[in-house]
Each structure stands twice: as C-alpha cells, then as structure tokens.
Amino acid sequence: MPIARHGAIELAYETFGAAEGEPLLLISGTGVQMLMWPDAFVAALADRGFCVTRFDNRDAGLSTHLTQAGNPGWLKPLIRHAAAPYRLKDMAGDAVAVLDALGWDRAHIAGTSLGGMIAQTMAICHPSRTRTLTSIMSTPSARIGTMPKISTMRKLVQIAGTPVNGPEDAAEASLALKRLTGTARYPIDEELIRDIGRRSYERDPGSEAADFRQRAAVSASGSRRKALAAVRIPTLVLHGDQDPIINVKAGRATAAAIPGARLVIYPQMGHDLPRELWPSILDEIAALAAQAPARPRTPRTHSDQRQAATVPGRHPAARRPARARSRWVMRA
Prior knowledge:
alpha/beta; Rossmann fold
C-alpha cells in the first residue's frame, strides 16, 4: 500500500478511479480506518468521474501510531490542552501530505465526523489546496452537539468495554455500534458492517489510547466558527436529524459559519452513511464539485502553495465583499 509522509508520520492510502478524474480526498472519523468509506461507495464516486483517495489518519489503521505519547484520557485534554499530543491542524497537515504524495495541486475534500473537522481545518489552514469542502455529520466546535444522551453514553461504554480478541469479535462489535448509532429508518447491511469490522481488525486491532489521542486533538483545537467565516470555497454540509453522536445542531452551526454553504438534513439519519441515501449523497457531492473553479493548467509548486496559505489576503476569493447566506434543504 502506498505511503505518504508528513515529517515522522507515515500515512497509508489507496486510490480508486481514473487518474484524470476530479481529485477527491476522503477523511475518516475517530477510531475508524479508511475502510469506513465502503468500497462500493468509493467505487460509485469513481463512476461519477472522481479519482478518489481514502487514507488512515494518524493513530489509525496502517498509519503511524503515536504510542510513545501515551493515553491522555478524556478529561485531561479538556482541562489542559497541552495534554493533547497533536491538534487538528497537524491532522490537516497529514491530509496535505497525502495530496503531495499523489501529486495533487488541489482536491475536493470530504470528511465524516472527526474527518469533517479535519476537512474544515484544511479549508482554513490550506485554502490553496482545497477545491471544495464536504463536512458530514460533523461540528465546528467540540462544544457544539458533541454530548450524547446519558443512555447512549452508557451503551457506548458497554460496547467499548466488551473484549475484542479476534476478527469475529471485531465484526460483532462493529455491528453493535452500528445498531446504536446508525439509521433506524433503514435495515442494517449486517454483512457489510461485519466485513468492515473484520478487515479493520486484521489491518490493525486499534487501541483505546489511540482513540483518546484523536479525541484530545478535537478538544484541544477549540472552535473553528470564526475562522470558517473566511472560507470562500463551495461547501456542503450533510447531517442526519437523528444523529445520536453529533447532534444535528452541529451541522446547522457548521453551515451557518461558512458563507454560502449548502446544508442538507436527512430525516431520521443517524451517525452513518446508509446505503439507501448513497444516491442522494453522491448527487450532492458531484453537484458541489461542479461549482468549483476549473483546475489551473500550470499548478504552482507545493512550497508556493504553502506560502500562499499562510499569508493573509493571498486567497483570491478573500476579496469578496458580501457574505452569502447558507442554503438549507431537507431531503426525504
């Protein structure tokens, strides 16, 4: 499997679709691997003309695990941000390193949950590398919509506390989590979920400490709402109105923070991507990509791009005088 490098961090990735397709980077959520983007979903994106890359975040899958950083737990990073071994901006830098390895000047960026937070941070810190932003079941701040109900928390703790000693245990744990956090409106594709659980375990069993390091990055990175107000790229926000992990108000807050963002709320959707909604989600992502300016014929060097991303006023859309309102739609 190809490897991208960001300093000492190695990032495993894989690419689907024709090389000349529209470049699209998919970013995963907390404690899950690139496999959480189902193969058939990725293939459907490729069929729509995208060249799709998914990758393992740091502390997940086949990418570098920062085991030497230990387990920060959940409370310490909330009280003392220095307890977090890295921030979301570091994870956004990882995503840029994947673009560099692919030779992509810019790409469409889509992320779910934690991946949506990383994608938002990438649009803020690396605007010259981000063509469009799709933030799915995510939030602009660790303080918005991230406190599940007590009953949900208890069930999450119970699932997390169940021993996983092999691929079959991992398959059943994945299914239990899906039943808790998924979309009750549609039947669960049990074999797909079990397969993702098995394959993930075989790639890397994961650890509680790795999950907490990723969660610490979120709590230590603060709110992005003010910075998102300066984002000037086509943006799509997707959220379910029955998400038990990140409340739909977080999706609304994300869209409200970004000028001109399109907000799509799916009735009864939970914290997942149900197969029945794939056609709509694929349509939304493809329509968003069509709004992006044409790719430049002569891309700048990566060093030039990084410089432009750090110099105020260099982003060409930053001179737009008017702040567009977000657009909201409820999908059936």
